[in-house]
Design brief:
This protein is α+β, with helices and mostly antiparallel strands. Helix content is about 70%, strand content about 10%. It has 4 helices and 3 strands. A 3-stranded antiparallel β-sheet has the order 1-2-3. Helix 2 (about 40-90) packs parallel to helix 3 (about 105-165). The protein is rod-shaped and about 155 Å long.
């Protein structure tokens, strides 16, 4: 102990009477005295070891809780995004009626709302384009019929005239009856076609 007191070290480990001990020196500056604490190293480090194990267990528990929370938070973000991605895949595969169920009022929910609005607008535009195309085809057909009708009437007139000149009165009469039914039908039904 005297060597320890004479040295510069504040803490040393020695063996006294077969027991490993830790000597800790504290100086009392005003009196020139030293206070020396002698502790059994096994007991000292056993307590430290227990504290380290306890801290390691607590740290492991905290890391586990943090990981579980991170997974839970990540799922609350990724699940709605996965639903949105699935809906996009359905649209890509031709299922135009697919929509995303809006379950949240955050950015992801707002994204789902705008995605659904975009799909609704696309469908409305497709319906309008289809209607316009049908109207265009109908107008083209009517224009074609307007061209055909005068030719049909001219041809019918000249055929009737030829039948009457050849004195084929029965055939001319049948042709006039069919023409009359045709004209009556297209003027009352709005259609320009009639089976003769």
């Amino acid at each position: 102990v005297r060597q320890f007191l004479a040295g510069d070290a504040e803490c040393v480990q020695e063996e006294i009477d077969g027991t490993r001990v830790t000597l800790i020196r504290s100086a009392c500056a005003s009196e020139g005295w030293y206070v020396v604490s002698v502790m059994d190293t096994g007991i000292l480090f056993r307590n430290v070891t227990n504290i380290i194990w306890k801290m390691a267990m607590e740290l492991s528990a905290l890391v586990g809780i943090a990981a579980a929370l991170a997974v839970a938070v990540a799922r609350t973000i990724t699940r709605p995004l996965q639903k949105l991605r699935r809906a996009m895949n359905e649209i890509t595969n031709g299922h135009a009626e697919a929509r995303v169920k809006v379950e949240r009022r955050d950015e992801v929910g707002e994204l789902a709302v705008h995605f659904n609005k975009m799909l609704d607008e696309m469908q409305r535009t497709q319906r309008e384009l289809l209607m316009r195309e049908q109207e265009k085809q109908k107008a083209e057909m009517m224009a074609l019929q307007m061209q055909i009708n005068p030719h049909f009437l001219y041809n019918t007139y000249f055929n009737l005239r030829a039948l009457l000149q050849n004195e084929e009165y029965d055939v001319a009469e049948q042709m006039m009856d069919v023409l009359g039914r045709y004209l009556r039908y297209i003027t009352t039904s709005g259609r320009d076609e009639e089976t003769l």
